[in-house]
Amino acid sequence: MAPARTAAQLKEYNRKRDFKKTAEPEGAIYSKKSKRLEFVVQKHEASHLHYDIRLEVDGVMKSWACPKGPSFDTSVKRLAVQVEDHPTSYNSFEGKIPHGQYGGGTVMVWDMGYYTVDDLGKGEDPEKKMREGLEKGKLAFTFHGKKLRGSFTLVRTRIAPGSSKPQWLLIKHRDDEADPSYDPVADEAVSAKTKRTMSEIETEGDVYGEKPKTKSKAKAKTSVASKKKIASSSEKEVYLKPRDRDRQTEVIRESIKAKRGIGRSTKNAISTALKPMLVHKTPELLEGTEYVYEQKLDGVRLIAYTDGDKWTVISRLGNDKSAQFPEIGESLKKLSKRAGGPIILDGEVIAIDKKGLPLGFQELQGRIHLDDREAVQAEIKATPVDFYIFDVLLVGEVSLLDEKMIDRREVLEKLFAKGKYPHLKINPIEKSAKKMKARAIKGDWEGLIIKDIHSPYLPGVRTKNWLKWKMVKREELIICGWTAPRGTRKHIGSLLLGYYS
Fold it and tell me: 6 with 28: CB under 8 angstroms?
């Protein structure tokens, strides 16, 4: 049961808002409907874009404004400024706050779900542990959301000069969900609640209950229709709306015809950059004739554009990485000349060892942000790379976005059938899950990518037609005994384990 101080905690929230002008919910107390502790992350385009992270504690939502949003990279520390507590009813708010009001701008329910408190003892009250963590300045919890999953920590650092707001750092813990190559802020652009983009929310407003007096009958009908549309959408639906897919396909076709962005300025390159198709995680290695399997690589995902003597490679965040990986350029140009026109490829730059075998992402960290030519040349020798290609999106004037994955693969293999292209490789595929799993175990791979052979290429969409399966290494051990504690240790010094050999 929430403490009596809860009502006082919402005074600051209520003081800052004029509820006659904003559709935000008033700061009232509601009886708890679930034993689970809720969390919500709201993308907020106010004076500055930021992500509001809210955790339920004692009947209110403890809130932090995170300018850059959460990261799945354990080496990244994201600033999170603690702000006033919000009511739990705010968790469902998505819409527009009028300009001139506190926080004026567009709000999206970017992610939602529940969280659990880490390292909770048997019978221990999770909210009590959160209260203690808030007082001590360190929280550890696990998100169970639609986008955010896994363990995170919030660590208080200081209060900025001239501010009464405590500053914290949001950090991803090392676990199976950690993934430095996955950027949820860049990849997840639609609402977890309504599947709308920020621009759609800004245009349509809050379809879940703007004040009736501000609506015309026509707008009211639109909102009802929007409600029905959203309610009927399936959680498993992963494709773009038909009109969005058609528009995106047409944009890329026209941009290639105009040959904009290839070999020109970074600004132009970004303006025509496709976002790569993304994968979902799966705990099981799916088997079937409708799937093919390839090695899960651990590098930098890039979309390569090449047309004759012009080429560029663009990262998932829209950054031109041509200067960091110049050695792949000559082969890309050679490939385009052989094809007789522009080509767009999807792949991953991988650091390789002396035998040409893939290494981990950490080997690239000293190179991916270099902008000094001499430093890059030194890294070319110290950290050689290959560009592993797994998809082709355009050849000549023909877009392959709507073609089946297996048909695109055939086109890709024909492109490489004759000729040698240093630093370019096709990531091999296998039709047998068992054979590929055996190779993964022998090669100590991180995991496999599972692809539906019938899937089209959906730029920027996280689809279940592509799945990521990570290998979990396990070992059975027997606890044979223990040693007595020494020094400051209590209870047990160490465990003695037995291993079957």
Answer: no
Per-residue pLDDT tens over the stretch 410-420:
999 999 987 88
Owner of token pair 């350029």: 329
**Token pair of 281 as six digits:** 């995680």
Interatomic CA distance for residues 27 and 13, integer angstroms: 7
User: Looking at the structure, do residues 187 and 58 belong to the same domain, yes or no?
Assistant: yes
Grouping H, G, I as helix, E, B as strand and the rest as coil, residue 395 is strand
Q: Could you give the CA distance from residue 324 to residue 322 in angstroms, rounded to a whole number?
A: 5
CATH code for the domain in which residue 345 is found: 3.30.470.30
- Cα–Cα distance between 382 and 363 in angstroms, integer? 10
44 by Cβ neighbours in 10 Å (0-12 / 13-18 / 19+) ranks as buried
d(CA 411, CA 393): 10
User: Catalytic site residue 296?
Assistant: yes
pLDDT digits (tens, 9 = 90+) for 201-223: 888 876 543 333 333 444 433 33
Query: Kindly report the CA angle at 408 between 407 and 414, in degrees rounded to 5?
Result: 95
Q: Which of 275, 296, 321, 333 does the annotation list as catalytic?
A: 296
**Domain stop point among 232, 260, 290:** 232
Longest C-alpha distance within the chain, in Å? Answer: 76
Is the residue at 496 inside a domain? Answer: no
Domain around 400: 242-470
234's CB contacts (< 8 A; 6+ apart) are none
Separation CA 304–CA 315 (nearest Å): 9
Looking at the fold, whether 193 and 55 belong to one and the same domain comes out as yes
Q: Quick check: is 288 in a domain? A: yes
pLDDT per residue as tens digits for the range 397-447: 888 988 999 999 999 999 998 788 999 999 999 999 999 999 999 988 989
Q: Are strands 105-117 and 37-45 parallel, antiparallel or unpaired?
A: antiparallel
190 and 297, same domain (yes or no): no
Ordered DSSP codes for 55-101 = EEETTEEEEEEETT---S-TT-EEEEEEEEEEEGGGGG--EEEPBTB
